[in-house]
TrEMBL record, chains A, B, C, D:
It is an enzyme of class 2 (transferase). NCBIfam families: myo_inos_iolC_N (TIGR04382). The keyword Metal-binding does not apply. CDD domains: KdgK. This is 5-dehydro-2-deoxygluconokinase. It comes from Paenibacillus chibensis. Gene3D superfamilies: 3.40.1190.20, putative 5-dehydro-2- deoxygluconokinase (2.20.150.10). The keyword Acyltransferase does not apply.
Length: 334, 334, 334, 334
């Protein structure tokens, strides 16, 4: 069954709006950052990673965002372009804002943390009037990411993009991507996450992220089914709730449930798993695959990324994912 | 035909959320404020005025808002209570915020202006968690006012109130009440006005106010019909567009149009006309009157208020309005 | 003995820098402000009051300050000009700032309070580059007031004025005028009050105000003599410590002490006493009077002001003060 | 002749107050930062560098500052302690502030730039009440650095430290270290730089930095002698004006002038030259050397640092400096 219907004749497959930042990944791993001496620079930010992933998988992509007017901002734009992503709607900030930074610390494969620099971040300065209506109109799918809702005017820019997407029948996917910094309060978070989610066709998040959205709801038992059904009263077609290593569950508007397990991995760090999963899954949707096959594709992409040092740079091609799935199955047979 | 259906068994007729402030009206009129020497103090703010009007008309009312922890804040609470309005959900700010002020200047009956003090205003500090779900649940009608959307956290408190109103089947009226101060940009205004209006049953504003909401739309000719139809795609049952002295037009979801003229008035100042109109019209809706009769009631209330020195304090009773309408008709016959 | 030497040939006697605001005095006195209905508008702010007082006493005065670009700001400028004070260096703010307000509440002659509006106040926006060097150069005496030190850029404007005054041999008087609002912390207050006081010839404050300046000092016993001697190590010639009804003590650099008592008064409210005292005392200094005679003049002016409804508007002429002193002495004899 | 007299019996030679940050130096040099892939982490900030330099030269040092409550902050504290610098007055911020960052870009030995992250920097949060009086009291010399004056409350903390230094006869050195970011305006900069410099015994800056301080002065020809003489009217004993490759000139209160040339260097980058110079010169003063010998020592230290990849980590020992000077002289002879 097809849950999402895409306009076949649109020139762009995928456009994302939101955070563009720089990851500075510690080269010396398995130690606290106090003892880290050198860092390697990558493009980062959840929607950036997903878009890079989608482009690697072969889709025609564009990004709507804002970068600082400095070397970091130019590095981001150049990297996106080298990866075949249109940056015609990546605006340069003129207010002296900086690029958000994420220093990663990998104490062990399961003990990872991030030190964020998000004060005066350029991406949060995106204005609603800077979102180009004709670009959104040309896309089959729009991805919004929760961090872009954390602050004005980026928050309004996202709602503006949602407005255009609705107007032109663009399928909307929402990656909750909740990060506590930047938000003023848990209540503020719940209000805007709900206003945005009401308008989306696909909603993807962890159980903990959905709990944050349900701050004012009655779902004390944190039941996934209750979570999903709420959104089917609005625009949602598919709601995916991720449970880490336990795998994920997709609920569809027709009442069906679809479960996917994680692949066994040689984990370097946990960062980037969610982004790779989202890219892989949404790619499957665009290909017209079943929910189950798309979820498997997402899980495999996630597994590949967490076995590598970077997030964005490690996003796999469709062939890599396919090969990984086949290899995993062969090994399982053994 | 009945456009709005109210829950008959609710203990409250009307609850409003938003601005509570103090008007300081120049006693010496028909001169610039530089030459004004004394001022008289009144409770003000559009939703406050409407609620006072509704209470004078005999309805059971409550207010959801925030006041400063000083003499001005206590004056407001005492005045609301003296007018029979429940203040159980009027919270006292503890951050040192002040009561918003509006100094009025009446150079002539048609040349009036307001000098606003809105920095660090207590009413804009209302938190979403301070809106009491059980209070909203008990009301037949909720009124929201645009100025409360101008800033966080008051903005989120309004969306929270809308969420509760939807949950309990409370009819929602939206008085656009656009004031340029406080808002950061025209784009921001349009985004939040639209997000709120999507959820409302009755939307009331001037032609200019609807234009502001249509910043990202195609309605270059400013046609009222196009304006109204947009909202019938969402929740609206009735859309009223006010044209000043030319009267107002109400559009209903069934396609009907209803026009009301202004009554001839002995104008002292123009302030408060819109608030009195909204109170009068929404009173008629709660009474089960036709749109036409309700509009006439609103226009008469407006006419009474602009013939007086104050806004809130001049709100008429139902008998006063009735008498005014009858008298106007008798004089017309002459 | 002469403690202060003024340049005889300067065209201006007195220039003050700092706060220009509006007082809204309750017309209904001896009751809480919640029950006050009407207010009368006056120019206010300690340095404004002192300058108006000095002009009434017959001195050639100018003001360095900033007013809002609205009716309140224009009212202030017009009032100063009507009182013969040069406003050539009163700048109009263009950032949308408002005039600071002080609503006075007079519950009883000894129980008075003020409700302040100081957010986004125009006077605190005065830039150092807006202080005109040639104006300061032309004055015999410069008065600075502590409230102008509370925030940037007004704080820097005061230091700039001090720099010019030093450069041109202008006698500097410092009215501490401590008001807790606006200041970020008690420590910040102490730091800037001390930096400013180091450069002043005359320092006037209450015992409590000097205590605030001595936050980082060793004067646990709050001894006036220790307080005064500290400043004689810097620029001070005269230090006056006020003890309310107990009168005031002036310490001079030569080691002398001068005490002044208060006159018995028919007190309406306590506001304005300090401003009238400062105007009266500094007038005496400019006249070449002894410290004792100048203090008596200040005390008499203070007594006249607290017997009236306003502060600025009640500032007496030299004749009124003289008459008041003579009358008091006659009555004492009886 | 001895220009500065130090208290011989104090347990600390040198204490500095101000900026503590992290330098991220591009490992790939001679290219724009857009093409830089990896960075190496060092402790940075002018007063931190000078203190590290002073400690390497063998002096007993302490630091007064504030660091972020994260891995970066802990890295700084650990590095200072490893270098023998007392961190008993290095306070940990609890407001969520971050460590300031300086990404260096070395396009060529003469085309270097810095990309700063100074928003919400922990070092600028140092409170005046956090400066420990007994620590300042124990030092022979206090160094203040201009960047710490850029913002409250760090600005007040510096004035508080100056107050304590004056109280206990601590010699005060001022490294102007002007950085345009963080400052609100050029006028604000001039005001506070002057207020601080008035209290200092040694003032060190480039010609451009002194120009900034003279914004409100008459020195259109930018004459060093006029610059220096201004400060001899206050507390200064020595004023050093640096002219880059042209060398530097020291003016002393007795009217003498002392010139030092730069050593020829194999320049990697220009960063850190000023800090090494200041450390070297002030070390000479503490040793009781002549101005000329101290300047030579400073110039040699500067030359060593600019031939290395880092600033702080490259600070030389006294033996290294001595060897460098001797070697330079031998080569010159050839």
């Amino acid at each position: 069954m097809t849950y999402l219907s895409f306009h076949a004749d649109k020139p762009l497959d995928f456009v994302a709006i939101g955070r563009l930042c720089v990851d500075l990944n510690a080269n010396e791993i398995n130690r606290p950052m106090e003892e880290t001496v050198t860092f390697t620079k990558y493009v980062g930010g959840s929607p950036a990673n997903i878009t890079i992933g989608m482009s690697r998988l072969g889709k025609r992509c564009a990004f709507v965002g804002k970068v600082s007017d400095d070397q970091m901002g130019r590095f981001i734009v150049q990297y996106l372009e080298r990866n075949g992503i249109s940056t015609s709607n990546v605006v340069t900030d003129r207010t002296g804002a900086v690029t958000g930074l994420a220093f990663t610390e990998i104490k062990s494969p399961t003990d990872c943390s991030i030190l964020m620099y998000r004060d005066h971040a350029a991406d949060l300065n995106l204005q609603p009037g800077e979102v180009r209506e004709e670009l959104i109109a040309q896309a089959k799918m729009l991805l919004i990411s929760g961090t872009a809702l954390a602050k004005s005017p980026s928050r309004e820019a996202v709602f503006q993009a949602l407005h255009y997407a609705k107007k032109y029948g663009v399928v909307i996917a929402f990656d909750i991507d909740y990060r506590p910094y930047t938000w003023t309060s848990a209540e503020e978070t719940a209000v805007y996450y709900n206003l945005a989610a009401e308008k989306c066709d696909v909603i993807i998040g962890t159980r903990e992220e959905f709990d944050i959205m349900e701050r004012f709801e009655d779902n004390q038992a944190h039941l996934d089914r209750i979570t999903a059904d709420k959104w089917f009263d609005h625009s949602a077609q598919i709601v995916i709730i991720k449970h880490g290593k336990e795998g994920s569950i997709a609920y569809a508007r027709d009442g069906s449930e679809h479960r996917a397990r994680s692949f066994p991995a040689n984990v370097v760090k946990t960062f980037g798993a969610g982004d790779a999963y989202a890219a892989g899954f949404l790619y499957g949707m665009l290909q017209g695959w079943t929910i189950g096959k798309s979820m498997e594709h997402g899980s495999a992409a996630a597994c590949i990324v967490i076995s590598s040092h970077s997030c964005s740079d490690a996003m796999p091609t469709a062939e890599q994912v396919q090969r990984f799935i086949e290899q995993s199955k062969r090994e399982e047979v053994k």
